[in-house]
Amino acid sequence: MTHTAPIRRDARTGRHLTTALHLAMSSMPVLPLRAGKGPFGNCTTCADNACGGRPNMKTPGPCVCPRPCHAWAAATADPRVIKSTAWTSAWREAAAVAYHPGGAGVTVVDLDNGTAVEWARATLPATRTVATTRGEHWIYRGAMRSVNGVREGVDIKSTMSYARWLGPGTGTMTDIPTAVRELVEEKPTARPAPRAIAMSAPAGGGQCPHRSPVYLERGIAMAEQRITDASSAVHATVYRTFLAVLSAHGRCGCLTEAHIGRLFTAAQAKGESPRHCTDAWSNALTALGI
Questions:
Q1: What DSSP letter does each residue of the chain carry, written as one string?
Q2: I need a surface site. Which of 53, 170, 226, 267 has the fewest CB within 10 A?
């Protein structure tokens, strides 16, 4: 059960909270931002970064909280969470409101300087635009993969990312153009194709704590991205990710072989062997006593 508590409102707290609740009414997932654009966690375990996580990252980092509650995953359109005790101090300290573009079904082309803006005006179809401190946000209808630095001064923010809310902008929103999708097309890699591995899902039997299938899907997607983003210590990252997934979803019977296959595929794409994948999964099961 999510607990709410009265929030002591100064002018800034009231403004940010009011903005967040207004955006949530339009099904836009929101979150408070610290000064410097770092987000807060949205559960009591991770409040004030007590978990030791890295809230400015796309993934929870060393945090072992089983819930996806950091960065883009902290964003929510649930007013009960927005006003919950976990975010009481967050709204007091917040410097701005952010939102999860992919969760709102949109993609932000973040143009960070005048040169990038000139490129967009010459290359991309017109859409809704929002002025930023150094450039503009061009917002398109539809979600896609997020990638920073697709060209000088240009970031793509959509799924598994967040953007600062700077107002509704001007102009009519249009669909994501091919030119934007082509910016983030994955380059082929020289790694061998992942092999299918048959692994039985935990039998479960406990009471399922998940709010909806969307919660499980978001957790699996976040785990895949955490493995994909690993730039070092891949073995350890894979094991910790498997451990986190099983901590959250291993005892209630929600995990399927398809979910496990997705995690193993992500691990193999980073160079892990099928044996390393099965060993990491088995070790995580043993560590949790499942």
A1: ---B------HHHHHHHHHHHHHHTTT--EEEE-TTS-B--SSTTTGGGTT---TTSSS-TT---SS--SGGGG-B--HHHHTBGGGHHHHHH-SEEEE-TGGGTEEEEEE-SHHHHHHHHHHSPP-EEEE-SSSEEEEEES----EEEEETTEEEEBTB--EE-----BS---BPPHHHHHHTPPPP-SSPPPPP---PPP---S----S-HHHHHHHHHHHHHHHHH--S-HHHHHHHHHHHHHHHHSSSS---HHHHHHHHHHHHHTT--HHHHHHHHHHHHHHHT-
A2: 170
Reading phi first (left if > 0) and then psi (alpha if -120 to 50, else beta), residue 108 is in beta
Q: Closest Cα to residue 76, out of 51, 48, 42? A: 42
What is the value of pTM for the model shown? 0.60
C-alpha 59, offset from chain centre = 7
pLDDT tens-place values along the chain, 290 residues long: 444 444 444 555 678 999 999 999 999 999 888 887 777 766 666 666 566 554 434 443 445 555 556 677 778 888 988 888 777 778 888 899 999 998 899 999 999 999 999 999 999 999 999 999 999 999 999 998 888 888 889 999 998 789 999 999 999 999 999 999 998 875 444 444 444 445 555 555 555 666 567 778 888 888 988 888 876 667 778 888 998 888 888 877 788 888 888 898 888 877 777 877 888 888 888 888 87
